């Protein structure tokens, strides 16, 4: 009986979680939900105020917090400048970063220490990965105008956005293959999946950061869709044939990404991109990489380049390993 009494009184003291659902005043087609933590009846009898703690208001704040173009389907484009980052915007912003997985937070020394490196191909499979990557890069350079001389500020942002829509694919495909392999063979994964998912998300956050600066138009969006239609089956096929080939390919892709971002940093530091150099890093980027509040666009590119060098090293390492060897990378590292 004493036990029953104890259980009843505990249940009575437990606060109730209440969800209020209503229509968003800003977007009538969207539902606004708000979670409240309501004190239990027992707590109320002790004169605690009702609805003491508002836990979160998910959709409403996100709608307010995003720049207007963020989900836009229009072909409105903007010159490189931060879109919609007013004080009000910062106050209401509920960042995508609250949902993100662990990832490296680089210090000043680390971001400046990044070097361009090259893994010398060993054997036919490595050479195939390298030549395939070089031919794709050739086409990519033509499509983004990189092959025809110095890029404008807008050109740089276009290139970054396009690059990141492709770079986010391999980690997800690799993780899916590893996950399915583990289910199919009924054996453990050896810790690879989390690193691959972290990589995919990290690339997506590069894209999200660049989207705070650029609002792609319809033609650009068509290119992105075409790029995914081409690259997803290609990389899936590659992973199906040989995970080693696929990881080596990504290792080489990331070597090129480090070169591209190093070139952009050189342009910024030489004063050739004054418009970009004078920009502040978007709030999303400042939160994601724990940058200072006054961090610049250049600081953001330093962090992105450090990420790319990390992906390069991870993928070359995976390509050198057998599929049933332990992943040496800890979560977030
Ligand atoms: Fe990236
Ligand atoms: Fe990368």
From TrEMBL:
<dbReference type="GO" id="GO:0046872">
    <property type="term" value="F:metal ion binding"/>
</dbReference>
<feature type="binding site">
    <location>
        <position position="164"/>
    </location>
    <ligand>
        <name>Fe cation 1</name>
    </ligand>
</feature>
<keyword id="KW-0812">Transmembrane</keyword>
<dbReference type="GO" id="GO:0010230">
    <property type="term" value="P:alternative respiration"/>
</dbReference>
<keyword id="KW-0472">Membrane</keyword>
<protein>
    <submittedName>
        <fullName>Alternative oxidase</fullName>
    </submittedName>
</protein>
<feature type="transmembrane region" description="Helical">
    <location>
        <begin position="160"/>
        <end position="180"/>
    </location>
</feature>
<keyword id="KW-0560">Oxidoreductase</keyword>
<dbReference type="GO" id="GO:0005743">
    <property type="term" value="C:mitochondrial inner membrane"/>
</dbReference>
<feature type="transmembrane region" description="Helical">
    <location>
        <begin position="219"/>
        <end position="241"/>
    </location>
</feature>
<feature type="binding site">
    <location>
        <position position="203"/>
    </location>
    <ligand>
        <name>Fe cation 2</name>
    </ligand>
</feature>
<feature type="binding site">
    <location>
        <position position="203"/>
    </location>
    <ligand>
        <name>Fe cation 1</name>
    </ligand>
</feature>
<keyword id="KW-0408">Iron</keyword>
<keyword id="KW-0679">Respiratory chain</keyword>
<feature type="binding site">
    <location>
        <position position="206"/>
    </location>
    <ligand>
        <name>Fe cation 1</name>
    </ligand>
</feature>
<dbReference type="InterPro" id="IPR038659">
    <property type="entry name" value="AOX_sf"/>
</dbReference>
<keyword id="KW-0809">Transit peptide</keyword>
<feature type="binding site">
    <location>
        <position position="254"/>
    </location>
    <ligand>
        <name>Fe cation 2</name>
    </ligand>
</feature>
<feature type="binding site">
    <location>
        <position position="311"/>
    </location>
    <ligand>
        <name>Fe cation 2</name>
    </ligand>
</feature>
<keyword id="KW-0249">Electron transport</keyword>
<keyword id="KW-0813">Transport</keyword>
<comment type="similarity">
    <text>Belongs to the alternative oxidase family.</text>
</comment>
<feature type="binding site">
    <location>
        <position position="308"/>
    </location>
    <ligand>
        <name>Fe cation 2</name>
    </ligand>
</feature>
<comment type="function">
    <text>Catalyzes cyanide-resistant oxygen consumption. May increase respiration when the cytochrome respiratory pathway is restricted, or in response to low temperatures.</text>
</comment>
<feature type="binding site">
    <location>
        <position position="308"/>
    </location>
    <ligand>
        <name>Fe cation 1</name>
    </ligand>
</feature>
<dbReference type="InterPro" id="IPR002680">
    <property type="entry name" value="AOX"/>
</dbReference>
<dbReference type="GO" id="GO:0009916">
    <property type="term" value="F:alternative oxidase activity"/>
</dbReference>
<keyword id="KW-1133">Transmembrane helix</keyword>
<dbReference type="Pfam" id="PF01786">
    <property type="entry name" value="AOX"/>
</dbReference>
<keyword id="KW-0999">Mitochondrion inner membrane</keyword>
<keyword id="KW-0496">Mitochondrion</keyword>
<keyword id="KW-0479">Metal-binding</keyword>
